[in-house]
Amino acid sequence: MTLIARPTNREEDWRYSDAAFLSTAPIETFDDWRSVTVKPGAVLRETVQAGDAAPSAVTRCRVHVGAGGRYEHFATIVSGPYRRIELEVTLDEGAHFEFGGVTLGGESNVQEFVTRVIHAQPGATSNQVVRAVQWGQSTGNFLGRIEVVRDAQKTDAAQNFRAILLEKGASANTKPELEIFADDVKCAHGAAIGALDQTAAFYMAARGLPPEKARALLVRAFIADAFAAIDDETQRETMLEDALAHLDESAL
Amino acid sequence: MLIIDSLHAEIDGKKILNGLSLTVNAGEVHAIMGPNGAGKSTLAYVLGGRPGYEVTGGSVTFAGQDLLAMEPHERAAVGLFLGFQYPVEIPGVSNVQFLREALNAQRIQRGEEPLTGGEFLKLAKEKAALLRMDMEMLKRQVNVGFSGGEKKRAEMVQMGILNPSLAILDETDSGLDIDALRVVGEGINAIMRAPDKAVVLITHYQRLLDYVKPDQVHILAKGRIVKSGGPELALELEREGYDEVMA
Ligand SMILES: Nc1ncnc2c1ncn2[C@@H]1O[C@H](COP(=O)(O)OP(=O)(O)O)[C@@H](O)[C@H]1O
Ligand SMILES: [Mg+2]
Fold this sequence. Notes:
The structure holds two protein chains of two kinds.
Chain A: H1 19-24, E1 33-38, E2 43-48, E3 58-65, E4 70-77, E5 82-91, E6 96-105, E7 110-119, E8 125-134, E9 139-148, E10 155-165, E11 171-180, E12 185-194, H2 198-206, H3 211-227, H4 233-250
Chain B: E1 2-11, E2 14-24, E3 29-33, H1 40-48, E4 53-62, E5 65-66, H2 72-77, E6 80-83, E7 90-94, H3 95-109, H4 117-130, H5 135-139, E8 141-142, H6 148-162, E9 166-170, H7 178-192, E10 198-202, H8 207-211, E11 216-221, E12 224-229, H9 232-246
Parallel strand pairs in B: 3-10, 3-11, 6-9, 9-10
Antiparallel strand pairs in B: 1-2, 1-4, 4-5, 7-8, 11-12
Helix pairs in contact in B: 4-6, 6-7
């Protein structure tokens, strides 16, 4: 039995989490780690679809990717009141981590992805794309931490977060954290939070699309970025449609 | 077909249209010309129902119905088409997907059967050919990476596919080279020249009117129609300029 401490909003990794949940959830909730190993040169893709929406509120996963291996994780968070998917990925030489995440929700839901990517050896690459679509009083978060150890030269790490807030009360947060101890390193980070493109929405209406159809098309195009790296078209479409079905049911 | 009566409109409390009246009958082409900032695009947007453009007086009747009481997408379904001065880019949405959904949304609203994928593609091919546009262009994202001229031609392909009864075309001729201008002019004629259709061409130049012959020409200034005449009015404007003609 290890004794773990209950997380609070004072901690960096939990700063945007649902405070009520943190103080009331059973303590085991926070120590539910899953382990994944990707052998050198192997490829593993994992998807968490809206349909099987996170069986527990907090899922944490520790991944080790061997030299030249590739780990892909694509996930959609559509439920609440608090949902967190956390990934800690350690990359050996020349390994790659590909991550695509979508949060989509309303009410007072707090939905977040938290990643910690450790470039432990030279030449490893990572690419993370997160899209948030929020309405009501909901919040979508992406906390991405990148650690590049000494001597992990030729690291290439990219993170991109964009959020669309469909209503005034919704919010989104992102906070990239870089800890870099090598000098030949590329780290790219982009973030943007905005409303649905009203000019495009009017253009679409002027062609006959009712507001909900226009919105669905725009949201689809927006979240598609997160799944663009899925090379299997059927799988990519399933992920998209699953997420969008939730928008149809819930948004506005 | 279209009766605009003493229309007043403002943006952010700023008066832009000040009692504009205009009647367009089926089978006619009207040209609206006027200096920059006169309110030409505002008129187009007000007719289209763009949010933020507030009508403060007057009325607009289209095909016997109160146009201003309808939502923008409903106006499209009853046959209004707005050709944008600056066509909008929609990243991640292809022309084919966009137009098929738009056409079928209109058809459903009118109580017609939606087109199947095959039927739609056949129609799209036919209209793209009319505007000398490659089908490959239609598979690309809406207006993304299109040149100014390509955007205007794409607008006309959209018009061909949606087949409206009234087209308000806002400076569709700007940004076109002389060959594209002819293609667009002929496209407008092919799509819209019919006894039960009408066109309002908003333009700065006579040159489009060489291809699409107007029945009436109006000068819009300071938010109202200040002068109307036949095709000769456009020629006069070209020769003498607004100041002279409006004086
Ligand atoms: N979004 C806006 N907010 C405030 N003023 C605007 C806006 N759009 C247009 N205007 C003003 O309305 C007037 C008419 O503009 P517009 O209809 O675009 O003219 P035109 O198309 O005839 O050149 C101009 O004075 C312009 O500055
Ligand atoms: Mg204009």
